[in-house]
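Q: What does the assembled structure look like for these inputs?
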Amino acid sequence: MIEVSLVGNANTGKTTLYNTLTSSHEHVGNWHGVTVEEKSCVYKYKKDEINIVDLPGIYSLCPLSFEEKVATDFIFLHRNRIVVNICDASNLQRNLYLTLSLFELGCPVILVVNQIDKKKICNIDYDGLEKQLNVPIVYVNASEKDCKDKISEAIVNLNTKINEGFKPKYNIPYLKDILFVCNQKLNKYDKNIHDKSQNNENLIDFYKIKLLEDDDDIKEKLAIKSDFDCIEIVAQKRYEYIEQLMCKYSTKRERVYGKSKLDKILLNRFLALPIFLLILFGCFYLTFFSIGVWLSDGLDFLLEKFISLPLLNLLIDKFGEGSAIVGLVDTALISGVGSIITFLPQVALLFFFLSSLEDSGYLSRVAFVFEDILGKVGLSGKSIYTLLMGFGCSTTAVLTARNMEDKNSKIKIGLLTPYMSCSAKFPVYAVIGGAFFGAGNIFVIVGLYLLGVVVAVLLSYIFEKTILISKEQSFILEFPPYRMMSIKRTCSVLWLNVKLFIQRVGSLILAMNIIIWVLSNFSITFNYVTTDGESMLKTFGKIFAPIFAPLGFGNWGVVSALIAGIVAKEVVLSSIAMFNHVDATSSIQASILLSTSAVYFTSKSAVLSFLVFCLLYLPCISTFSVLLKEIGWKWTLFGVIIEFVVAYVLSFIIYTIGRCVEYFGLWQTLTPILIFAIFILSIFYITNKIKKKRTCPFRDKCSKKCKIKR
Amino acid sequence: MISLSMARFNYKYKIIELKDLTFKVKRRLYELGFLPCHIIKVLRTSLLKRSYLVEIGGYTLTIRRDIAENIYVSDKL
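A:
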């Protein structure tokens, strides 16, 4: 088998190429850091099997963030693998910097120049460049199928040469100059370097250059503590050579990569934030309140007419109306799964809009805009990717926390992501809120989405000031050019999300529904119980119900649904449908209004409290497992406890305020709250003023004896 | 010699040196082409001037104000 690594700068089309080569459907996007972990796949080309590994984007072999470290560690450990170095033709000059680092390491390299943009920035003489660098160059468009043959052919040819004893010898004229500096500076470490590199010539040179670049990993490996501070010399030499190459083999650049006239409006200092909020609101409106709702209603009608009712009638004819099998299909499948599957169009639309934002290149601009706000609460502008992805799925969003540069920032953003309203929570808001608030539910849903963001921001501020103080992030972020999403990609995104949703509903949620149906229809002694009987779940739910009584929903049904929802948030809704024995002809919304149901709410304030609790209480099991892997069990446990406490306290406050409004009226309740809030804010303001006054204005030149805070 | 944070928008400046930055950040900046004599242009800042959008080596990227403050450039070209 031929072993190949796919290496390149961020956002050059590595994953697109990987998908084309292996016919996979890995997540791609037009922003920095979509891929955060290595992915591998084997594909066949003629007689050969090729194992290709897609790595996160890097700028050099010295990592700055966690995902870059994944890539550099892999390259270094597997330096004998063939490296397919993908460069963006529109930004070749910057991309070649990494290529030269790979040459210095002595990897067998194939240079793939990807022409993503149809508008060329400059013309490149590939043949001349190939001869000059002494490396095979393939130029392709990574999304087109013909690139598979071109690249695979180059891989097979290089592999054949390597098997015949070929060792790559690249043309790196500046290497002598750098090694001269190395020999001057690193004389006393020579023995150490030779021992660790087992006298491998390429590795000796590479270690020396890395030492000049003050690479922490190599220093640790060689047990060297001194700083050499020669990064500038190394970078200067590489860029001088690149400039020579570009002068000789490329025409003058016609435009700047990532610069667009559109930015004058989208990044306008005063308009940028309102424009982003408008775009986001537009996406949510189309998904949850217009097109999405129409499509959902249509799907509901079709499912009921052509699947649910005919299936139920068939089973009733065969087994009789009161049989357990009819009960199972009616509650667990038709009302349980059916209540979730109708949200398929809305979930698919939401992911489509998020993917469109990713592909457009606008997300990097959003990060730039949000650096102001997020920077104030100890997050980087880049965190906006993770938070926005959290609106789709928290599990995948948590993974993007690897973009962060320091551990505390990574932990912090990992802990905050579950506070976002993911697509699984929306069905709960829509159905439960819809039953009590009708058309006004739009404000409740918008409020819940905002509340998640506000809680995350406030918690970030508290974490930053107390236990998770982050280092200053550099926020060095490249702007990609704007791109339109192709029809092919649109179809692919929609199809993938529909497939994933159906798979999730058909496997995890259906299995969970069956388990819940068994637990809610059989007693502890395993007897089939009637509606009023004491089922296992009822017995269990009654133990925990008193804990939630202060929040307004202390009945066993609600508590059991919340516990079941830890597996997947959609299960909260399907459980309610099952507990209330909703069948093909009745609705969940009608059932929760009846006080005779297992799950019911006595007032609107109880519903609000329940929805807030649903938003904040605990991450689903898959997010929990990713958090465990990414931030460790201690922080995950801490996060889970904090989430539960925050959810409980906020739900309690909302329920109490809601009850007061119901009893005393709106203004009679809000007036004392406003007075209290103003009082607290004034205290904060005055304390800050006093602190500022006590700070010495001449602190730089002031004597040490000065008693005023410096 | 002025700091990049003092530079005027859309004017070309020549980088002179990077000062008082951590090794990691300095290295990343060098890797991205923030080398002496290279031409740089500030395109815009965010509302609170916490981040800067710059053009260097034929592409655009963002940097934070504290980094921009430590990049010294010549008077505008």
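The longest strand of chain A covers residues 2-8.
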